[in-house]
Amino acid sequence: MAALLYRLGRFFFRHRYLVVLLWISLLTAGGVAAAQAPASGPTTFAMPGTESQRAYDLIDERFEGQKADGATARVVFKAPEGHRITEPALREAIGTAVETLASGAEVDRVTDPFKTKAVSGNQAAAYAQVSYEVPAAELSEASRDELGDAVAEASRSGMTVEAGGATQKGGKGSHAAEAIGLAVAAVVLLLTLGSLIAAGLPLVTALIGVAIGVCSITALASTLELDSTTSVLAMMLGLAVGIDYALFIVSRYRSELAEGRRPEDAAGRALGTAGSTVVFAGLTVVIALAGLAVVDIPLLTKMGVAAAGTVVLAVLVALTLVPALLGIAGRRIKAPRTRHKAARAGAAEGAEAVRNMGSRWAAFVIRRPVPVLVVGMVALCALAVPAASLQLGLPDEGSQPESTTQRRAYDLISENFGPGFNGPLLAVADAKDSGNPKQAVSEVSAVLKGIDGVSTVSPPRFNEAGDTAMITVIPESRPGSAETEAVVHAIRDAGGDVMGGDGGRLMVSGSTAMNIDVSQKLDDALLPYLALVVGLAFLLLIMVFRSLAVPLKAALGFLFSVAASLGAVVAVFQWGWLSSLIGVTDPGPVMSMMPIFMVGIVFGLAMDYEVFLVTRIREAYIGGHTAREAIVTGFRHSARVVTAAALIMIAVFAGFIGSDEQMVKTIGFGLAAAVFIDAFVVRMTLVPAVLALMGDKAWWLPLRLEAVLPRVDIEGDGLRAEDEPDEIAALPGARS
């Protein structure tokens, strides 16, 4: 592989202007396609195999004209201080709002709060339920505007009027924090590379790759039903890995220039060595993201595949556009003056070459491997402690910023009716095979009223055939809480006991029950997904490092990183520690997708640093250094770049903590914490300690396995055959 990439690097270097033109053409085409594409709608969940989905399907089948997945909105009216919602003037204003809402083209029905008794006990508030004929993703802008106009008109009466539900658009939030993340990345690049051109190149190439990826997602969003979070995740990962991959290649290019190579050959060698690392590091990320398909949640699969596509773009940009731009920049990407001296000294003196901070740190660790290993493991275990109390759920409107109408509507309902009214459960009683459907449903209703944690049970609403009924159950606790989850399980158990023997069945659905089913499905899929991703990457790393111990160490280190970072997420988002600093207004259960995202994404990113760092160590080891000397030499060449890459990733991920979307905020914080823990505690500290303790045994591979494994030249051994006598300049400062 190294020889192939070497030749490709020289090819792209020579044809640099053609390569740049092709990428600009792709960017232009993507931008045009995105601009002409229809807008995507809000997120909708389809959960094959879950009870919630089966209940929705049954409603569509048995209740003619009833759209179980139709959009809904809840308009909450709050009387002015000292007034009651039942006063004639306010009652008239509410009636007018109900009539206005009911006249909408896509509206199925609107409930009158005074007829449905949706008035609070203190008569301070009321709410109307709006049901639409189409799903939220298909709702027209005109219908959304009509809802907003009705709310504004009713507010003129002096009432506080807010609207929540799937028809409302969440706040887009500011991109200032993301811009700060990019600015920090730029500063880190400048300090690391010491040149504006060298620092700007990774940023430019990463932005081009991300722009093409996001434009492609936007163009396909409506067709593939991709939501806004998909593009945000793709942007987050694309920026992080795109900058890092370009940094790896630019850094190696500068090292090759410092050794006296001509720019074209330096570009080829940079791609043959660092480029090989980029390919395998990117492949681990793609495996982790594409592997999300095993969870069998369509939304999650689409997000994983879209993000994987952006990572593939980042790899292609690094392998093609970066060497082309290096060709344009030439020697203006200056290498440090002392680099060639260090290289010459390194060739002559081995591990005693000129030392930098990375080599000094590695020397410190290998002198005291046991204490360093113990301290590092204790720190990781302490950080992982909160993960033991992890509670999963999906964000509801209570996690929205307080500035949004959804959050204000949510709070008004909780204050005046009870928290459970924000997450009603929909029980669907299928009594078609029952001897007496009416009697069976009546018995179910009586049982539901006696379940602990149930606040209200509505009268059953039968279909025309009279064999299926929908019953609304209001829990006492808020949506997403452990108490509400217990109520859902209790209803399902009770329904099986009451209706099971009579040939019927009871299913629980609604957004709250759907969230519970999603969390359970994700929890069940976590171990199989972990086994798949870690297993495939383990085989890949065996081929790369020709070792059993190094891939095993990498996998174990990753597990500790995930546990520690999940502990940090639980402490902030569930326990509320320091939550005000990052804008978490209502701590609660952690987003149910977070653990599987952490496993997938963090594993891929952790392997980036593992591959880049350990490759340089193995390169020194097979070049004749002792096991301990190889660690110091590897750190001397790679620690600075790995540190810069980690800081860049942390800055990019942390920038997304400022998002108004709870899912994006949680992912941004979790990934930033995970990269910090994995890069600086695991890879930069525990890895050299473990390698020092294992010595030569770290690089052992059974002879039989050695014989059958395909040989992947990631260290660049094969590049010796590509050398040409005139490719090395006579002097380091010679012109090309």
Structure report:
The protein starts with a helix and ends in a 28-residue tail after the last helix. It is 62% helix and 7% strand. It is built from 22 helices and eleven strands. Strands 6, 7, 8, 9 and 10 form a five-stranded antiparallel β-sheet that branches. Mean pLDDT is 83; it is low at 338-353 and 724-736. The chain is α+β, with helices and mostly antiparallel strands and 736 residues long.
Mean pLDDT across residues? 83
Count of alpha/pi helices: 22
Q: Structural class of the secondary elements?
A: alpha+beta
Shape call: elongated
Query: For the terminal residues, how far apart are their CA atoms?
Result: 27 Å
Evaluate the radius of gyration.
30 Å
Uncertain spans: 338-353, 724-736
How many DSSP-defined strands? 11
Question: What's the story with the biggest beta sheet?
Answer: 5 strands, antiparallel
Strand content: 5-15%
The helix fraction, in percent, is: 55-70%
Summarize it:
The protein is of the alpha+beta class and 736 residues long. 62% of the residues lie in helices and 7% in strands. It is built from 22 helices and 11 strands.
Topology at a glance:
Blueprint: H1 2-14, H2 16-36, H3 51-62, E1 72-78, H4 88-102, E2 107-110, E3 125-132, H5 141-155, E4 160-165, H6 176-193, H7 196-224, H8 228-258, H9 263-290, H10 298-329, H11 339-349, H12 357-367, H13 369-384, E5 392-393, H14 405-416, E6 425-430, H15 437-449, E7 454-457, E8 461-462, E9 468-475, H16 482-499, E10 505-509, H17 511-545, H18 549-574, E11 590-591, H19 594-622, H20 627-655, H21 662-694, H22 703-708
Parallel strand pairs: 5-11
Antiparallel strand pairs: 1-3, 1-4, 2-3, 6-9, 6-10, 7-9, 8-9
Helix pairs in contact: 1-9, 1-10, 2-7, 2-10, 4-5, 6-7, 6-20, 7-8, 7-10, 8-9, 8-10, 8-20, 9-10, 9-17, 9-19, 12-20, 13-18, 13-21, 15-16, 17-18, 17-19, 18-19, 18-21, 19-20, 19-21, 20-21
